[in-house]
């Protein structure tokens, strides 16, 4: 409805960068409804199993397109771009970007929050702390040592990506969560861009000290991150700077930044200690406001900064239970199992055709389990199947899994806080699913209060940004905020508890499944479960193999002398003093079965198949991150331990081409 002259209010724009989508939303100050919005889906790249990357340039491109389109709707509503007086930013947290401050170019794709490539980095860090205690840094950072957090991703980038290493040496490296990348780029990039973040995003890096609200020198040292490459930390609500990128947003101030889950807490008006909200998106994140108290969880929850609404106001903290897979499980049912076509309609309708899951439980631990378990070795299971199970039961079990995971968090929260929650505010796209909402109330036994709009994150960022420029005082805004629907529990305590006990049994069965220490590129050729597979080859006997090795050496000597070193069987080497167990295993297997293993850097991105392809078929690998480089140093490795393990382990099996397949149990010894 167009506004009449004289009734125009100031507008606040919000950039909302989620895991799957970028949105630009425009709010009229003092109203908690969207005036105009536009969104675009993002590209997720999964170069290996468990990896998840995004394109930092695509994020910026989408922000500009979304802003243009949302702003383009303003004239018909009686407004213009000039009515937007400030911008807020809310973003997926933990996702990490490294870029060059001189060129402004990203040095690697963004590593998404749910990417688990850093499992081995976690092990390396755990090896340095007493008792390999994953909670060792919790009293400083509020977080366990897990692949989830940015410090691990930064360390991985520094250790594994040549361009990042080089930029670091040349002091051109900048790291940031997505908010930092957006602000830096929008405020001028290489020409004076602001390298900043807010306390909520910084609190997700595992580098910030929750007391000082600054980078912690000990944590930076532990992860080998130079503080110069990190952004300055600001409050969530103050004028940081002005957009200077020549886009439609040029000239508008930026005055609010909040990680998207903390933003939803603000948007949900959970500004009093003891109030909690749960946001159901790809993952699910339950935050409980603990006021100025930093509650240290002893039950697997995170302590995080909820918000700091101004540089001179104290930070407010929250306890958080993070669930890696919620809506993501529906996508899995659609895209991987093809059980449904439409995540929204089908999950509600098809699951609603049965009255229970028929005792089927689905633990969607696709990349491990987050809170309260923090088990990177967990993997997804569907259990309790019978001859009567239908897809309806499985879909319903996937919905229930979201609810049971929420109960896991609530149980932990109640123990940590000593006082059970009496109601749960909910938001996120999945909350449009009435069946899910009713199941949630039934499985936690308290009322579930659905927000009037699913996107509370953008609203929270608008409140923070508007507050900083005096157009959206939190107190005034709060009067307008009421939940739209309430779902009341319809189950008895006994029924609820019996089902929850079964869920816990299912969770137990999902634990300890993944023992992979090193991920392997999943290509069309080797997509056969997560086991090390040596390549198919056409040798009929050892003599042929040996001849072939000589040929390959010649190829190497002739064509790639200094750039790619062929590592022939009895000549083990390593680079930079690092001996990688995975490579040892491959080298040993190569020696045993007379297969040539070419050698690059210890943590290059290739599989052995890429390497064999190069030598056998003279085919250059087309993987973009390839950084073949000469070996700088030769070191003898100790083969004995790995040989012993493999020699004595009956679990080496052979595929149809007589290639050895080393099963998980062997690799767990590595
Ligand atoms: N009504 C619904 N019922 C069930 N699942 C849903 C519903 N709406 C969305 N989803 C699922 O929730 C996930 C999260 O969606 P979205 O909020 O767009 O993603 P994100 O914010 O994590 O980028 C989607 O992957 C989709 O599978
Ligand atoms: O983009 P979402 O909604 O999946 O949120 C992701 C979280 O911020 C990760 O911590």
From TrEMBL:
InterPro entries in UniProt: ATPase_NBD, Carb_kinase_FGGY_CS, FGGY_C, FGGY_N, GK1-3_metazoan-type, Glycerol_kin
Keyword terms of this UniProt record: ATP-binding, Glycerol metabolism, Kinase, Nucleotide-binding, Transferase
Enzyme type, top EC level: transferase
Origin superkingdom: Eukaryota
GO cellular component: mitochondrion
One of the GO biological process terms: glycerol-3-phosphate biosynthetic process
Residue ranges annotated for the Carbohydrate kinase FGGY N-terminal domain, each copy included: 12-267
Pathway membership, UniProt: Polyol metabolism; glycerol degradation via glycerol kinase pathway; sn-glycerol 3-phosphate from glycerol: step 1/1
Entries under CDD domains matching the protein: ASKHA_NBD_FGGY_GK1-3-like (cd07792)
Pfam families (UniProt xref): FGGY_C, FGGY_N
GO MF annotations in UniProt: ATP binding; glycerol kinase activity
This enzyme's EC code(s): 2.7.1.30
Domain Carbohydrate kinase FGGY C-terminal: from-to ranges: 282-466
Similarity-based family: Belongs to the FGGY kinase family.
Protein name: glycerol kinase
Organism of provenance: Galleria mellonella
Lineage: Eukaryota, Metazoa, Ecdysozoa, Arthropoda, Hexapoda
Gene name per UniProt: LOC113523217
